[in-house]
Automatic annotation (TrEMBL):
It catalyses: L-glutamate + acetyl-CoA = N-acetyl-L-glutamate + CoA + H(+); N(2)-acetyl-L-ornithine + L-glutamate = N-acetyl-L-glutamate + L-ornithine. Substrate binds at residues 146, 168, 179, 259, 378, 383. This is Arginine biosynthesis bifunctional protein ArgJ. Belongs to the ArgJ family.
Amino acid sequence: MSVTTPKGFAAAGVTAGLKPSGKPDVAVVVNQGPDQAAAAVFTTNRVFAAPIKWSREAVADGQLNAVVLNSGGANACTGSEGYADSAATASRVADRLGLIIDNVAVCSTGLIGVRLPMETLLPGVDAACTAVSTDGGASAAEAIMTTDTVAKQASVSVDGWSIGGMAKGAGMLAPGLATMLVVLTTDAVVDAGALDAALREASRVSFDRADSDGCMSTNDTVIAMSSGASGVTPDAATFQEALTGICVDLARQLIADAEGASHEIAVEVIGAASERDAVVVGREIARSNLFKCAIFGNDPNWGRVLSAIGVTDAAFHADELDVSFNGVMLCRGGQIGEDRSKVDLSERYVRVTVDLHAGHDSATILTNDLTYDYVKENAEYST
């Protein structure tokens, strides 16, 4: 269950010494073909890291041979020197693996505003390139972790082809994309245009709807690569469903690990006049610190949900709103519903459902509760 589950991919994760902890910090994922189709989506933050600039240019032609990733340093806000460091990292991978430098993407994560120690990073890149294997997916997923407590991986197999993925992210999680590095691989035969369209749709309803702390990163990157090694060309709908499923799985893993959360929360908005309205309402609730505090305290305080809805411009009538916690409708028609003592929030997973009664569209936002002590202990400006 990793990026090397699909045929045609090899990976590795090694310790270069970028992290004071001595944990793995450099990963490489290689597409061994026969196809080299690729697509990517990046942060919408106007302040973006050097690897973002490099990788946007690398994937512009719809092809990638490899992705090299490092934790222990974001290489963000480092100027032209930082861009040169990203280029040097891609060049090292290309030299060691016999690839074209312009077909190597670069991803970095860690502290913002600090140059990468290239004298440490590049030997680590050499080691990772030497170690790549079809069994290296798990080590690669471990090497991209920062404040993550667990590696995040997923895979699915469908009718002779498969998709695999790995992700990192445990803070600065907010829409567009949420803070993350994600690599997705497939051995299905999918051209670059179709892969790009599928990735954007999958990201739109998964990573773009993961919101833990309302903070957007400078380094968000989601890269998808197709080797075509299965020889199977799935229909577009089947491929979309599978890719979206993997992205939702990884997004849920990010939320589960984010900021030391004690609850994973799905805010489901139904009966909206438009999908846009559903997303706006869901995000407003998900970002309410009062709502998060209530969930953390195992209190199904539906009043905090209503107050969050009320500041949006979504279409609704206040006296028609229904709010349910784990299937118990505590607010019916904008008024008191079932007794809140019927709701048990002791379990980790919580679903809050809001019915706006204004239409037929819906959306679900993934969030969590925040624990102050965890945030305090991990208060670095990192990505």
